[in-house]
């Protein structure tokens, strides 16, 4: 019987279009209107491209729907209208991009007073962005005629959709010459300078945040596109302005002028971090510093560093007097004075500046004792791992820089410039400045780790900074073992008692901590190990087992011919001996003298005997699998010409059940008693 399908059914939309007086709203009520549009339904596209339909679609995405509508359905039609306009259908794109009245209606959306409806703003941005990518010449020409376009977009920058629109102008314009024209136009409109002005402390926080994110995205997009283009005729004008000393100085001025708020500090610092970041962002790129040293450090425009250096004291002041924050409740108790995002971003900035290995910047950081303050915070906020990571990166940068710096260069050694009360090794070994007047034998790394051991012995909780502190201690030890000159010189200048305590700490406490960490993390390392190329082979699978065999139904059985059944009868291995012993113990031989029994004869079923026989059969099969000799025995049967096929014991479900009905005292031998020397006799019960 064949199922009957009516493959010639027309869609309900076609039926609606055949009806006179059909409206756009009626079509938009249909669930498959978007699918039909993207499937290039000719009738539907011709209807949608009519002037009155296009006008209505644009109106839906630019005008607020009536407030008295139910909330669930209020933005239903605007959403469908946006999807239809951005369905990437040539007929709709041509109509929308080529009709200036429709573009004017779209542009009028920007002329509203802020704030914009965020949902309608996203519809507008998506529609204009699609036109920028598909009808580039017409749309760019239209926007350039509007002298207040950039002003209107920045006026609504509190809506994230406007940020997306600016990024589309920068990244979605092709070909390259036209893109360069757009960049020059945006530069003439002073886009970067105007975004930087929005970072002022007196601005709305939402505008500051979106302006900061826009600047960061422009930096990354411009650098990525510069790397991808093989032929660069001229530099990116927007990136050149962003990296200029004047613009960076203006950004820093806006951050610190007037009342310093956490939002202005965080947003401004994010732009600075983006200017300083390497091509490979993220933790993986930062931690490469450990293994590759200062050669891994990247080139940063010197104008950026020159603009930042005079304001390092302002960042230092933020570490001392951060913006006020209220107490917060954490899992370890009430934190009266939280670290805050401002100080955390300052720590990130210091870590990035140290990775540049710029001599002037590093000297200023040492002169301000910035590392001492960060180390004080490291021990004070023992549960803030975000801060711990940045301090660890700072220490790694200092040690790696010292390993590659000239001994005559006092850059980070700073023995002469440090105050007389200091130990001279605070920046390198991580000694907080507040401990400089105490006994030099009391090192924070040693004291903290030893105190944690005692705290754990009393049943307390392991402190949160112990992991990073252990890695810092290991980094110092590794540099000592490498013979790092600056660390070696400092260690020899320490008092005898301090050196003895350090050596004792390294040989006992630190070694025990590393041993315990290795044991604890062994299984974790196993779990996160990378899957190797031969992973499948190691587990006994191959690609052929997962391939389709529809064309050859015998494909699954062809592999049997590949199995090697050859055995060596003279093999006296331990497995063979154990197998023979098991056979002698568990299996009784067949008697050749008995007449061979017809397996098809009907017999009375004895369930007790059958269960006993099945138990023996199961025991035998377990032995075969245990000693991996099942294939060998089968090979012996098949390899002896003239031998009869063995009787295979069956369970209660087997036909006939003759094997299970044999008397336990009967003995039968399979094949002739004159077995060649190179063959084996397989006893079977």
UniProtKB/TrEMBL annotation:
Protein name listed in UniProt: Protein phosphatase 6, regulatory subunit 2a
Species of provenance: Cyprinus carpio
GO cellular component term of the entry, any: cytosol
Gene Ontology terms for molecular function: protein phosphatase binding; protein phosphatase regulator activity
Region of interest (Disordered), residue spans: 409-444, 639-685
Biased composition (Polar residues): 422-444, 670-685
Similarity comment text for this entry: Belongs to the SAPS family.
Top-rank lineage group of the source organism: Eukaryota
